[in-house]
Design brief:
This protein is an all-alpha fold and about 90 residues long. About 40% of the residues lie in helices and about 0% in strands.
Length: about 90
């Protein structure tokens, strides 16, 4: 819901119109902004390492990912470095 409201901007998608009630009426912008603020306040952020994984029960929690703050090539090089280190251990 938050991803649809805060992203996916292109020719076909207007995020401000992406979240509606069952009757098609838009949710008030103030309600969405309040929800986003609450979710940001309550989030837990973890740094993942190579080889780690998690199983998420979607009926109990919500999940998301943060945008990468580095170039893809830099991320790929870091992953390769970490994998080599794991093989040594």
């Amino acid at each position: 819901m938050i991803a649809a409201y805060t992203g996916w901007i292109d020719k076909r998608n207007d995020p401000k119109k992406a979240v509606v009630f069952g009757n098609g009426q838009q949710l008030p912008e103030s309600a969405m902004e309040e929800l986003i603020a609450y979710m940001e306040k309550m989030q837990c952020v973890y740094r993942w390492n190579a080889g780690q994984f998690v199983i998420v029960d979607n009926s109990m929690t919500y999940h998301a990912r943060q945008a990468l703050m580095v170039e893809r090539e830099e991320c790929w090089l870091q992953l390769q470095k970490e994998q080599k280190q794991l093989r040594k251990e």
